Each structure stands twice: as structure tokens, then as C-alpha cells.
Amino acid sequence: MMETTVTPATALAERVAEAVNQAGSCSVIDARQSLGKAALESLEYPTTRNERWKYTRVAKLRDLHPASASSRSNTPPVLDEFNAHRLTFVDGQFQGGEIVNESGAFIGPLSKAAQLQDDRLQALDQDYFADNEWFAALQAAAPQDGACILIPDGQRTERPILVHHHLTAGNVVAQPQHVMVVGENAYTEVILWTTCDDQATGLMNGALTAYVAKHGHLSLEIVQDEQGSSHHIAHQQFRQAESSRLTVRTATARAHWLRNDLHIHQGGQHGHSTFHGCYLPSGNTFVDHHTRIDHAEPDGHSDELYKGLAADTATAVFNGKIMVHKDAQRIEAYQRNANLLLGERSGVYSKPELEIYADDVRCSHGCTIGQFDAEALFYLRSRGMTETKARNLMVQAFLSEVLDGFRPEIQQHVEQVYAERLGWN
To answer: Per the structure, how many domains does the chain have?
Structure first.
């Protein structure tokens, strides 16, 4: 008689699946969920021996025992005065918002789209992360509700779409799935905002899948303002067609433990991608950004810029990879990562990468890690500024290249959070 050994990773997957099923899963594409379950059996749980997870420790997550979600009636709103089309989700469940299903456009929860628009959800057929990463496979095997934004050919949304996902207190697990499809010559602006309760200790394991068709344009601003001590793993994948434009700006305002995995695939000629981000871990927090862009067709352009600060004993990680495929000629790809150390015991690990298989390209990459410029700080103080004000001004100037690209409401919010956390105000 053979005995079956249940590994800690397998036990975690079973507990998460059970918790998601009890809270309410979102069945969209059965084949994709089956592939996610199969991948869980073949993929290894990530450890620091894996290069992609060298500085991202997830061993203690294997001991997570998901708890039942608390009341969902007091979800704090974000950007109260901001005029936007709003969708709110709590713990992977749709809480409220205006559903649009007219003139070929759909804006609403994925659970509703699966009933009404299932023939337009082909973007979910492919999942780069679920085929290669354990946590992404876990999410794909038991997805929960998220935003579904389908913009037909030639249409533009009149207002930005603000998608807010909140994680409640306790060891709650949420696995939201967001889907965005922008048609040919279509345009939309989306804000994806995540928050957590002060007492949140669980796991947000989310996925975002987007497709931008020929001459389409998707502008996405991601704000992560998470209280508590939860863990957040985000899988964000984008596919672009010919002459499409993609803009992704990520501001990590506050997080206890966060990993952003971003993958862009330029599958059409003359694609254009911009992805910028900023982060400020402090205390003993951890923030990790892993990005990859695949230039698979000629004449593509990409601009990547991430800037971060690490204070106290916090740790920040950046790993960015530019892949230029064979015959993808005349590519222009630029990548920069700049970091400031604000604490003697803080740490930053940066690894920019280029992998090029074409011979007619213009690509560059680089990173900097340093401390405040003593001469510049002295100059500002000699002009009558206190040290606190001088440091505040230097940090604002350092981050401005990234933050100035956000809409003013988001820029103001992120700067205010950073000032509060570091005691500048």
C-alpha cells in the first residue's frame, strides 16, 4: 500500500482553494483553471535557490491558514471627489459599482461578464505567469472576481475607470482576476487601487490580464496603499498588437510585503510601451518589482523607469529584463532604475538585464544606488532650510520624474503618504 506525502506547498494550495470556494470563486474558463491546477502539481514552490526569488522569501506563507472574511460594509472609499466610473471589490467579491453593458462596451465584474460576454474573454486563454510561477498557478486554479473592462473598436471611455480592491482584517486570502481588452483604435484610462485593513495579515494573490489591439491605447495607473501586515503578490501581463500603446504607472505608497511581477509582450510591429514605478519601503517592510518586456516584432519602443527609496531596515528589489527576439530589428528600449538609501541598515538589490538576438537595435539599461548628496543637502541648509525640509525637497525632486506622470490627484496622495511615513510633515 502506497502512502501519499502531502508537502507544505500542497497543503497550502488545498487550504487556499477551500477558502476561495467557501468565500466564492469565479469560474470563467474551465480549461485555464484545469491548466492552473495541473501547473501546481508540476511547478516547485519558490525558494531563495531560484534566481527570480533569491531575495523574495515566501517560506512562512506555507504556514498560512486562511480565515473567513469579516464584514464588507465599511470599505473605505478612495479619491472621494474624483469623477470616475467606480467598481469596488472586497476579498475577491464584487461589492458595488455601475455596470455598463451597452454599445459593445462592458465595464463591470468578471463574474457578470462570464455570463454575458464569455465569447470576448479570449485574453484569458493565455497565461504566461500561471504556466511558469507557482503562486500564479495557484491564482489561476481558484480565481475570484475582479474587474472586466471590454472596450470595442473605435470607442473611448468618457471617464477614467477606478477599480478598488480591499482586503479585510485577519488571515483572509483574496485571488482577484482583472481582465482588460482594448479594441482597435480604442482608448481607456484605468486606475487600479488596492488597500488593506490595519489588521490584515492574509494574502492578496491577484492577476491582471490585458490585451491592446491594433492602434489601441490603454493607460493604467496602479496605486498600492496597503495598511496592516498582509502579503501581496501581483501578476500583471499585457499583450500588444501592431501600433498599440500601453502606459503602466505603478506607485507603491504603502505595503508590508509586496511583489509586483509585470510582463509585456509586444506582438505587433510599432508597439509602444511605457512602464514607470516608484516605491518607498520603510521599517522592516519589503517591496519587489520584477519586470520583463518581450520585443517580438520590429520597430518597437519601450521606456522603463523605476525609482525607489529604502528607509530604516527595509528592503527593495528591482529585476528588469528586456528581451529582443530574433528579427525584431530597429527596437528602441531604455531601462533605468535609481535608488536612494535612507537608512544605514536598509538594502536595495537591483539587476537590470538585456538579452538581444537582433543586430539593429538601440537599447540601454542601468541602475544607481546611493545616499543623499551631502553637498546638495548642505547647500539647501545654508539657504535657511531645516534638514527635514531639505531632505523632503530632495526626495520630491528625486521622485518627480516618475510621479509627475500620474494624474494630480494620485501624485498628491502618494506624496502625502510618503511625507507622513517619513515624518516630513
So the answer is: 1
